[in-house]
Structures
1.
Amino acid sequence: MSKVDNIHHSGLIGSQPPAAEASARAKIAHTEEGFPTAWLITPATIWLILFLVVPLVSIIVFSFWENTAQGLVPAFSLDFYGEYFYTKGFFEPGSDRFLLPSVFIRTLGSTVYFTLVTMLLCLIVGYPIAYFLAMQVQAFKFQLALFLLCMVPFWTSYLIRAVAWLPMLGRRGLINQALIGMGIVDKPVSFLFYSEFGYTIALVQIYVVLCIGPIFFSLAKIDKAILEAATDMGATPFQIFREIIGPMSLPGVAIGMIFIFVVIMGEFATAVVVYGGKTSTAGTVILNYYGIANYPFAAVNALMLMLAMVIGIVVILRIVDIRKEL
Amino acid sequence: MARWTPERWRKLRVKTGFSVYYGIFLMFIYGPMFAMFVLSFQGRRGGTSFPMRGFSLYWWNKLLEPSTVGDMQGAMGRSIILALMVMVITGLFATMLAMAFRKKFFFSNVLFYTILTGLMVPGVLLSLGMAILMRQLGIPPAWYTSGLAVHVIWALPFSYLVMMAVFNRFDSSLEEAARDMGADEWTVFKEITLPLIIPGVVAAGLFGFTLSYDEFARMTLLSGAENTLPLDINASMTQRIRPTLFALGTASTLFSLLMISAFLGIYTILYRRSR
């Protein structure tokens, strides 16, 4: 049949256009259907430029301005960057601050450290849940139901969820009562709440769902036949995990880690509630300097936070190439 | 019935182990909230931790009566109004954007990444940028202006991704059939496209509602003189924590759950009808 189609012959009215040309023309006509693109994207684009692009660019601009008694004055000043990086005595071998990074860099560093610890804990806690949902639960209906059950707390206010740890971890909380009841300690321990421990626990509880979702989706895409084939050829469960399941779930792990990284780096509310404001994160420092009307320095802090986040995301993407694996 | 081979026993043990772990996990993520629900019914003389000293609605009543600190009812009302505005705007924007993205267009990549930036950029940063900018321009911030602006930026990426997923499974041959029969673009949209995508639009809008209702970080510097509910909760946490806060937390959580159920319910009904 196809041979007959391909024969060009001049018809009664004239030569027929080749099939390829006709379909190309049809495609052009197709792209002209629907509402004009410009109408559809203009309102949202204007909104995004005014309320996302301009504020972010203005942070960069304001970080170079000077703060005077009359308010912000346009300038190109690197003073606030100096204040951020330099501490007195940094270059003096005799000083006790010799080669000690500034307090702002150390705050950013501890924020990164906390974020990494929380990411690791979320992975350890969350991965088996995602594995259970994707591999052990058979019916899709149950998978979805059990997954939604994990997701529900994510939809409620995270401030409330942070406060909710007080009856558990507080000085007279349930954990302390249990410890005393079992005779492990005689006096309530105070390291649970208003401490690094409590902060980390609360962060894991609040954000672990962010990595369960992506890992679950990448695990669910694995063809079960491959796993059966591996079992038939004598692979142990550990080998199957190391050679097949682990590598194939990496994109999900990477996406989940990026979510958690981004959210916790900018976190400040949980730190205040659960950590009792005893510590500062990069986020609280920014707000403090805004509070005392030192806007350029708040902007410098914000930029450094942003820089650290971009570096973090690039590193994660370097370790796992998401696009290649998808 | 199959025989109980060692292999089947092993699989059962693994499955049981994982199920038990899942149960513990649920206790971990629901436990603290549940303790808070129970403690909100604490007796009048009780404190913020167990044991319960009687059972009363005292703290719930305190929530309803006008108090000296804060304005909880007003804050809640403002939060709901704001969330409704965000719902309508994000639902509309997300639908329009997803329709535009069905075709390739100039700078579509840039637009895509700009939309997703709203999701990636920390709330503190956006709040700071907007706040300094408005201060320089001499515009006072308010929850219904600057607050609304950044809430839409935050909710739009989620709603947009929902609508992209909706159009991914969309069969455009129906629209083409209508066009071939001479329908104009507006008729095609009203009669064919909209009825098919309406569950997605509702889902995208309600997604925006919940995100806005709970948003705190983006609002910190931008709400102006009047607080929204998350800001009010935060303010009351800096004072002595009382069971009233637990009652408020319970009420707020129940409201969120109600919204999610409504979201799932409406979606299921509309999805069934559209098929």
Note: Residues 111 and 281 of chain A are 6 Å apart (CA to CA).
2.
Amino acid sequence: MPRGIKDKVAILGMGCAKFGERWDADAEALMVEAYEEAVADAGIETSQIDAAWLSVGFDAVNIGPSGIPLSMALRLNNIPVTKVENYCASGTESFRGAVYAVASGAADIALAMGVEKLKDIGYGGLPVRTRGTMFDMIGVTGSAPGNFAQLASAYRAEHKLAPEDLKRAMAHVSVKSHANAVKNPKAHLRKEIDIDTVLNAPMVAEPLGLFDCCGVSDGAACAIVTTPEIARSLGKSDLVTVKALQLSVSNGWEMQGTGWNGSYFPTTRLAASRAYDEAGITDPREEVGLLEVHDCFSITEVVTMEDLHISKPGEGWKDVLNGMYDADGKVPCQIDGGLKCFGHPIGASGIRMIYENYLQLLGRAGERQRANPPKYALSHNLGGMPNQNVAAVAIVGIEG
Amino acid sequence: MTDPNIGILAYGAYVPQRRLERSAIYAANQWFAPDLRGLAKGVKATASWDEDAITMAVEAGRDALTGIERAVVGSVSLASTTLPFADRLNSGIVKEALTLPDTSGASDATGSQRCGASALIQALNAAGPGRKPQLCIASDLRKAAPASGDELMIGDGAAAMLVGHGEPIARFLGSHSVTIDFVDHFRSAGVDFDYGWEARWIKDEGHTKIGGGALSAALEMHGLAGSDIAHCAIAITARGSGAALAKKAGIAPEAVIDPLVGEIGDTGAAHSSLMLAAALERAKPGEKILLLDFGQGADVLLFEAAEALGKLPARTGVAGSVARGRPVENYMRYLFHRNILPLERGARAELDQKQPSTTLYRARKGVLGLVGGRCTKTGTVQFPKSPISVNPNDHAAHTQEDYPLAEVPAKVVTYTADKLTYSPDPPAYYGAVDFEGGGRLTCEFTDLEGAEVEVGCPMKMVFRIKAVDELRHNQRYFWKAAPVNEGES
């Protein structure tokens, strides 16, 4: 078992651009918007940053290749900038790069930026793209809703659920996230909806309707990290530190083997277990007080409640319906509106989740602030599709 | 006397599932072409957007090879007037999809409605002891101008005959051919639709004189009388023409094989093979079969059904193909799928579908033949084959042997009906299927007309067009899962 990075790295500052259909802004403007908040929060100068990571999902339709766009946008001091892409988990991957740089001692202060400018493609939803010459010959170029809708068909079959019961639990997820986002000025979709709106919405990919799908947004989010010692030397107290940072990547078993039934994410289960070990959490249902998960689709959130070992297998849908994950529930999930309503600028989402957890831990989440800040806040960032994915789990908490 | 061991060894057929009601075509066009009313009866087989002469040929070939080792086949021919490629061996793609040995011969035949029968004659004449059989497939997917008679008459389909030396189900007695440049219709290269001449002239000077003349000559050459023929397949679909020719030759009315117009339509180059398959389905050992095909002359073939016919394993054939038909009324979809009606497809249809030849060549067994890998150490089956096994308990390296999956029954593990992604036939159904004995594939589903998909549904694999590269006039082929119809194994 590796020693891990618990409490070795502190968050010095964070920022997040307003998510949404940012017709006014390009990727450069979005990055600057997130950075200006983060650097002011950190209380440092740009020249103090030693290394940077940049995540983006669909670089071909916005910033193009390499780390140069970040270096240019922020006028960084010719420091190393690494661009990362790991499907929709790219944001946490960028954060991981910066955190590891600090933990290793290679950098004193490192920056993680995630950005996505999706609304320059000319149509709704995610851009259609190839996945390499071989995959294109044998794979399915389905939509993201189509890929995740299969979770629902498999979950239903595995737990012998009536379609309407699962659909109701999925609808609850979306109603809850819409209600939460009303209190979030940076969220893309800030409008309450009722359950009938969700249930009666047009079908996108059976059984996912329009309101089972998250918003596709423009946005950027930024984190500046350092060691706890340096943070204190810069005058910070009440430090939010990284307790665990784990990534689990499919090796083809789900897609090519026959042991997986399609109703859960083995990668999320692994990443969560490893993260709890790294953070020293033994009873996640009781110890994790706040969740930001990758609710790209309502069914993903239902399944993820089980994969994070918080709901029991087959009971996630019941816990959802019982309000356990509502803003006033035992473990609030998506208190900021989540991907569903805060929005999902691919490369930024993982950092946006950590941004919310950071604010909540410090009691700075404004109108949506949870009454009793938890000890641990978890973010789950998923890339790819159910049968082939990248699952990232990050746990942050107050130092000590 | 030809060698009694030479003849047809097996047959198969494939007809697309959708049967478009001719009344629906007529209803849309009657304002313009009210005189077509007489043809607006029954249904015509219509291929989906993901089918062409090659994919239908593969399915007919699979049906013909039911219960037969693929390695037995020595060569494959594909006869069609609608070959997708002018210069790329169309039968070569069929060979890959059927996982025939690389040492197989292959040839394409085209240029006339009777190219199927002509290819059959050539293969039968080339057969002999020590020579491997030839799989002769005929397949056609013709377009017709909207509001034309052809549009109502033409159907899509394919049939296959395995011919050669062995234990035939029908012995080859001989053939007779005449070639005359009789232009009843023509279709120039690169043009979609036929240009036809007056039906009465075609019947009198073509069918009756050229066709009838060849028929009489063939009987006489082989010392047969019309009354000796128990099954007469005349691949002419003009109403009453075949029956009239048979009657004139002294062939009994009950011997005349129905030209399948009401249930399938005129399948062009495939039609003679399809009707021959229909004749074989009803023939008894010892009975004589006559096949006549017409097109810039005529080919006549004579067979005698043999004992082995009764031992042939069950197959879809023509009867099964007729039975699996599902009537549909969506004429607009048919026009769209034939590229006659351009619909607005949206930006999601803009994905570049360029197919790299290098990748295809390296992966041709997997892509075209659906050949996966089986770990010789653990028995784990997977698709695609890979250097290191997917087995989580033993990632054995470099242990996999070829493992064909196309004929292995499968069942649905996950699925969806996607209305967002672009599909010419929305919604796009796809999901994961597991093969009996191991192996999993996430793939598109097809032929879902009237079918309900659910986790656990039995599926079979079919060879189809995966995507069309409109920029370079090319298409990708791969395998899709289709529901197993009632009565199919």
Note: Residues 363 and 372 of chain A are 9 Å apart (CA to CA).
